[in-house]
Amino acid sequence: MSAMSKGCHVKTQTGKSEEYQYTPLVAAGGREVVVNLEAAAGAWDIGAGYRPLDGWSYNGVTPGPIIEARQGETLVVRLTNRLDEPTTIHWHGLRLPAPMDGTENVQPTISPGEQFEYRFALPDAGTFWYHPHSNETVQLERGLYGVLVVRGPDEPVVDRDRVLVFDDVRLDRGGAIAKPGGVMERHNGRLGNVRLLNGRVNPMIEMAAGQVERWRLVNVSSARYINFSLSGLPFRIVGSDGGLIESPVDATEVRIPPADRIEIVVGPFTEGQRMEVQSLRSDGFRSRRTATYGTVCVGQARASVANVPSQLREITPLAPLNTPPIRQVTFFGFPSLTRGWDFTVNGETHHQGGPVRVGELQVWEIVNRTPMDHPFHLHGFFFQVLTINGKAPQYRSWEDTVHVPPLGRVKIAWLPDDRPGSWMAHCHILEHHAAGMMMHFDVVRA
Ligand code: C2O
Ligand code: CU
Ligand code: CU
Questions:
Q1: CA distance 31 to 72
Q2: pLDDT of residue 255
Q3: 437 CA to centre of ligand 3 in angstroms
Q4: Fewer C-beta within 10 Å: the chain N or C terminus?
């Protein structure tokens, strides 16, 4: 144990102390970053007091290895499927060529025992994640997900960079992963009864006093919204889905819909301080109570070299806020006699939308005609949020996932660069996506 662990213990149900452990797979350095991933079944240890789960993971760990690379490098991932069902990997948030997007539209699924090589350049710095795009409701719940960190040449200087992955899992009375829950789950999305941070129940995070850290918060839950708080202490938001925002924004809480990423800078704190990584209760049935995901404990002071500038990046607006939309994407849902519940986009399940031309500005309005929250996700391209219920967002950013409020509207703008092919957009509540709340469309050359 390190010198700073004095006073840094978390009592679990069994009274045994747990320490946060999460080792990244560092593969950066050359022009090509080569990573071998193996998807396989295995025991998933979520912490003392819990039975090991029948998990599925990449390289035996949940979350899967953190893949680290630099902007401009090429990522080569050889995925071997050791599961007994087909799988694929979708690279969530990456601007890659359509054939590398990992959906069943652009590649045959990888059968058990087979291998597939993903290969693409990394044009953007940011926090991304990877997950199957095949039987997602089951494969993600079992633990198949991982994070990809791409660093640019001009990152803010911090004393430590961490990845915090939020998940929840639904266990049955016997402590095993519960079977899929039928119509209720199809309607509400699968909400876990055990909260996980980096694949563990209430892990401990040790920080040195006097230091400043960058936390990359990733929500991989099937349906759970996170209202992040660090025991109410102030922090600064510095990034979102598509990398840094323009300037740090002071906050004490921030919403992270399923699939979304938020980057924050925390600290400095003083020795002996303790706080909790929480999701606060808020409106909506998916967050009725405040829940603890992890415990932070501040040890002995260390010198700091942190330097977070007040100007992080410049983001040129794609379009004025009042630009009229050229397309509406309407989310709706209703009971179905045969399937219990259906979710639709523009009146149909698994909607086929019209083509999008390379280079033609897209201003879309996402209309939520349901009384529920839905996180809208666009594959392969970043967008800017112009308005949420008519108002400009708090800061300008690049996003691939955005919260669409109940009975609300979000207007987005994006520019299809020259990557023709078959793409999709969907609600990232995995059960809603499966129940039809998604659309396909082609990007075509003019
Ligand atoms: Cu993470 Cu089709 O999405
Ligand atoms: Cu995606
Ligand atoms: Cu939804």
A1: 8
A2: 96
A3: 7
A4: C
| Phi, psi at 94, each rounded to 5° | -85, 140
Residue 102: left if φ>0, alpha if ψ -120 to 50, beta else—which one? left
Find, among 286, 262, 289, the residue nearest to 192 by Cα: 286
Angstrom distance (rounded) from CA 309 to CA 127: 19
What's the alpha-carbon Rg for the chain, to the nearest Å?
21
User: How is residue 308 annotated by DSSP?
Assistant: -
Q: Which residues line ligand 1 (CB under 6 A)?
A: 90, 92, 131, 133, 259, 377, 379, 426, 428
Q: Residue 186: phi, psi to the nearest 5? A: -60, -35
Residue 136: its H or E element: helix 136-139
N-to-C CA span, the chain = 60
Closest CA to 254 of 246, 242, 243, 266: 266
* 48 C-alpha to ligand 2 centroid (Å): 33
Looking at ligand 1, which residue's alpha carbon is closest to its atom 3?
A: 92
- Give DSSP secondary structure letters for 385-427: EEEETTB--SS---BSEEEE-TT-EEEEEE---S--EEEEEEE
The pTM assigned to this predicted structure is 0.94
CA distance 252 to 38: 39
Q: Which parts of the chain sit beneath pLDDT 50?
A: 1-6, 10, 12-29
Mode of pairing for the β-strands spanning 235-240 and 401-404: unpaired
Amino acid making up residue 333: G
